[in-house]
Amino acid sequence: MSVQLTVAIMMTIAGAATPLLIAALGELVVEKSGVLNLGVEGMMLIGAVAGFAVAYSTGVPTLGAIAALIAGALVSSVFAFLTLSLMANQVATGLALTIFGTGVSALIGAPFVGITTSTLGPLFAFDNPLLRLLFGHSPLVYLGIALTIAVWWFLKHSRPGLILRAVGESDDAAHAIGYPVLRIRYLAVLFGGAMAGLAGCYYSLVLTPMWAERLTAGRGWIAIALVVFASWKPGRVLLGAYLFGLVITMELQAKAAGFNMFAPEFLAALPYLATVAVLAIISFAPQGGANAPACLAKPFRATA
Amino acid sequence: MTLRLELNGITKRFPGVIANENVSFAVAPGEIHALLGENGAGKSTLVKIIYGVQRADEGTIAFDGRKVEIASPHAARSLGIGMVFQHFSLFEAMTVLENIALGMDNPPPRRELEEKIRHVLNTYGLSLDPHRDVHTLSVGERQRIEIVRALIQNPKLLIMDEPTSVLTPQEVDRLFDTLRQLKAEGCSILYISHKLHEIKALCDTATVLRGGKVVATCDPAEETARSMAEMMIGGSLKDLSPKNDGVYGEERFAISNLSAPGEPPFGVSLKDVSFAIRSGEILGIAGVAGNGQNELISVLSGERTDGVSGVIRLDGSDLSKLGVGARRRAGLAALPEERNGHAAIGQMTLAENTLLSARGPKLLAGSGILRTGKAHDYARTVIEAFSVKATGPKAKAGSLSGGNLQKFVVGREIMTDPAVFIVSQPTWGVDAGAAGFIRQAMIDLAAKGAAILLVSQDLDELLELCDRLAVINAGKLSETMDVKTVSIEKIGLLMGGVHGEDDAAADAEMHRGKAA
Lengths: 304, 516
Description:
By secondary structure, chain A is mainly α. Chain A has helices at about 5-30, 40-60, 60-85, 90-110, 130-135, 140-155, 160-170, 170-175, 180-205, 220-230, 235-255, 265-285. Chain B: This is Sugar ABC transporter, ATP-binding protein.
């Protein structure tokens, strides 16, 4: 295998992994605060379409990425209001958010179908394959890795991170000591929404610089599974995201190489099958749930 | 001398109830002041007002002679008020160090904090490893975290809400030493409890609350436990009619080599539990919460059969493979600790709640059809026989007070005339009147020939009701002991994990304990 091809494959893995990584890190922070937002897919789609629309109209892809951040946070604020202030069921609201995001993104995106825009591509172009592998990615790839370290440090070593974990571990105890449980959860959900939005625009601004309905193709669900797979640890999210990136890339490469031992549909389904398998294995393992935030998906009502 | 804390005319109303009405009392520096009262007397609300979790509707608070507004726990802590909660406000999956840091407003960096913690531990002779995860600690150790968390901020007033309800007798003694040392340093302590002999041993003054009002202030040393209890309930205490001692029949309920895995994530597994109860006998199981009691109850009731090994015999026939319904039909009635949502369903009426467990024994259902009329009549019988305060069989279970609902569910089981009655914490959080009633009902049931298993953390209750006693610790059951001859020290040591196998070691430890 030529060096060129190897580098190309590795670049594809990073490309496939990055949106999963960013979305999953966002969801990890949300879940650590004790909230389960299953609307990642919907928020990613909203981010994707918002990013594309703004990048196309202004011609500046960076503005598109910023718009995706804001749009993701805005949609998640609806989720936060429903589940935190009105105490709606988090699972049902999250599913509704995904359906809502799918519909709204299709509606907003209708005029943009089939056109391309300038991309949020690599900052530098290199001919040398090694340099390209190190420095030739979209800035979002580096952001994903930096974000992993930042989230790890935040949760493990900063005081706000400690308080966030405490809220997810026992909302009643945190409230009794005097921490504003709902405010902390609101902020976590908004952060998760912003990250999902950003992850979404990776599809419309980097991978395929165009908009199509359901562009993210269920990757939001993989991101949610990743958080569980990684047992709520940022480092493992990084590992898992790149592992899934590898599986997705294998599918593309196999198709390109004319590999036809399995039906192409089977290969396309592989990442999703892997998701189901991971979730099944983890829920069977006796220690599987041990690291889950104890208050995950439990509504909080200040009793006293 | 300036008073440390002075409450004046504190009133707090909730929709439909007045939790505190015109409450006034004062605590001097270095005074241990008891706040006494039954459940629902307004102690917890009052304490939450002092700690800034809730605001009073009327009245004033003065601290060190200055009038203060305590708007939040943060404000309380900065005044110098520390609090040890009854239901610990701890985070199980985090370390001791992190838990202490979370309880402080401006914690110093990790290393400095650890040094401070070690200093507090040394000063008060407490032992605790700052790097352990909380879920690996015993209840006593968990309480020490709460205490260290409060002490590290050098409080002038320490509030302790029911601190001894989960401790072994030895741990209680150690806690009292710490509290007396604090008192000697000039720290005031507001001590909430309903254990009257502890208050007599520890406190300088007691304020008694009933129905949200201060009804008496007394010197505990000059009162008897009985006189204080009567102040609390506002009436005279009825004595239990005695058991018919030593009149036992055949062995009715026998467990041998029962083992079961713990409930995830942090449950305790049962290890080779064996015991037998005779007709007319009450066997008590003492132990600190979370040592396998819930597992034992759910394995005996038939709620859990997965991974369970061992034999459960009722009148000679093996129940261990049967489900909950079949066990009930065989004459085994089990009542779990949690009344809301486990023993009874709050949204359902009392009549409907009888169908949950008494449908087999009382024929309230047959051929797949519920006999609601019969259930209604049965609920009415229970309400009358157990003097449950409710509007009738159609009242929602959730609308009853804790004591009344407990009387109802105990009655629901006892009136099916079970051969074996298994009950956990029957008087937890129940007022003294209802508790006496429930205890009497259990004695009467035993007199009729039933075998009763009573799981409780209340040693006084166990000593009063039981014929024999065993202690559960880390899923293992000690040998059973005759209540008349057993020593509190021995029970305490067993609760703390010193097992019967090394009797010599236990004895040595006991003697040292007595000498110290």
